[in-house]
Write a structure and sequence with these properties.
The structure is a single chain. This protein is mainly α. The protein has one domain. The chain has 6 helices and no strands. α1 packs antiparallel against α6, α3 packs across α5 and α3 packs across α6. The relative contact order is 0.15. Pfam families: MDMPI_N (PF11716). This is DUF664 domain-containing protein. GO terms for molecular function: metal ion binding. InterPro entries: DinB/YfiT-like, MDMPI_metal-binding.
Length: about 130
């Protein structure tokens, strides 16, 4: 899948998100149920969990829960909680959120890229607790 996506640099980010949104449904619909629930390269997460994480992250841009990322002591916990809440969701429900939230996130990114807001730095979680952020 990644060889078909544009380079993920800031000027191309909206294009990357659009390409990912176009490709992900094709990729996930090609998976068997066993593949959908198979372990991913992310320790402890299934393929379904990774897709749920991407959709939940995009959704968080539009909900108060998204502010948790800025003030959280643990970025790992911010990532785990929404995935934990989605573990029992059907593939159709995960993909519906992924597509809806991804569409909104891409639109938001287009707007942000065209405004001075791109110059505002926002920390992700507590950089003392997670110095690699």
């Amino acid at each position: 899948m990644t060889d078909r996506l544009p380079a993920a640099d800031l000027p191309n980010m909206a294009a990357v998100l659009r390409a990912e949104r176009a490709e992900m449904p094709n990729f996930t619909s090609s998976l068997t149920d066993d593949e959908w629930t198979a372990p991913s390269a992310a320790a402890g997460w299934r393929i379904a969990d990774v897709v749920a994480h991407i959709g939940a992250t995009a959704r968080s841009f539009f909900t108060p829960a998204g502010l948790r990322t800025i003030f959280a002591a643990s970025l790992e916990r911010v990532n785990e909680d929404p995935v934990d809440r989605r573990r029992d969701w059907s593939r159709a429900k995960v993909m519906a959120e992924y597509q809806r939230a991804g569409r909104r996130a891409t639109t938001l990114l287009d707007v942000v890229r065209r405004t001075p807001a791109t110059r505002v730095r926002v920390p992700l979680a507590n950089s003392v607790a997670t110095p690699w952020v």
